[in-house]
Amino acid sequence: MRPQTLHSYLFRPLFHVGESLGIPRARLVETVGVDEEQLARPDVRVPYTALQRLWTLLVEVGGMEPLALRLAQAMEPAHVGLVGYVVVNSPDLGTSLQRYCRINGLLDPRTQWRVLQTAGGMRVELHLDPLDAWASKLRHPAEGLLVSLVSSARMLSGEDWPLKRVCFAHPRHAASGAVEDFLGIAAEYDASAYFVEGDAAGARLPIRHADIELGNLLHARAEAELAVLLTQEARSWRERVEEVLAAQPRTGDLVPADVASRLAVSERTLQRRLREEGVTFAGLEDAVRRDRAFQFLRDGLLPHFEIAFLLGFSDPSAFARAFRRWSGTTPGHWQQAQGAKDGAV
Length: 345
Description:
This protein folds into two domains: 5-227, H-NOX domain, CATH 3.90.1520; 237-344, Arc Repressor Mutant, subunit A, CATH 1.10.10.60. By secondary structure, it is of the alpha+beta class. It has helices spanning 11-20, 25-32, 36-39, 48-62, 67-74, 81-88, 93-103, 134-138, 140-157, 176-183, 200-203, 212-233, 237-246, 256-262, 267-276, 281-299, 304-310, 316-327, 331-344; strands at residues 5-7, 45-47, 112-117, 121-127, 163-167, 194-199. A four-stranded antiparallel sheet has the order 3-4-6-5. The chain has 19 helices and six strands.
């Protein structure tokens, strides 16, 4: 299963771009579909569809402008949390870019970056997931990522990273000239890949004011967090919701908004993701309640009225009706049959 979310940090500079185009902040928030309070939290992740909606709006309003440059101007290491602190505390530009390309998965696990050593220096490649082909069609998003990378490299080293080659896999557009002026090199458009290539000396440029020991520690932490994230992203939303519900002492205590908050998404996003997987919150809650009921009765440690309470039923008769729906019999008969079966074994 491909990753479905990216970090809310990535929306901060895009909001700056939108506001610079005169788009009201309220409209930007509405387009993303996650309220501003949620977006401000460091643990919130947002569906990729929200990124597509926001970039579509930006291009509709300011597609004649060099949006890549506006994005580069809005990007600061502090905007991207742990990833930013790793890159600013690396010993040299080459190491900083390599680390960024590796741990960028914390921000956007679906977009891949690679660093390659070439005969003349270092190449940084951007690889979009096939699900995100819209980014090439809109031209500005992928261009903005590469231009922001170059801008950040210059800021980190305090020097003009000399570029040997820049390639974009989309066609030229109205703002291409301004982008090339910023890069200081004629870009190749309609290329077969997205990448920037600089000379070997640029990779050796030291990062200004870097705390190298701190950078090493933070990089190790980022790698550990990335491993956890990729494991989580591979799980379905159904599995995530079931895990949260099953962890509660009493089934039924959490409403969808509570579960959404624990999964760091909006309630609307959670409901949409479950619909996409063909399930509902109520159906998952019922399944968790059923499985717990069977387990409680199998263990034989609790009276039925206490099981009814732990499963969130108002009384034992409500529990009995639900259990008949699940199994076709009563809790007592099922428990007796289970005991007889175990005795036969």
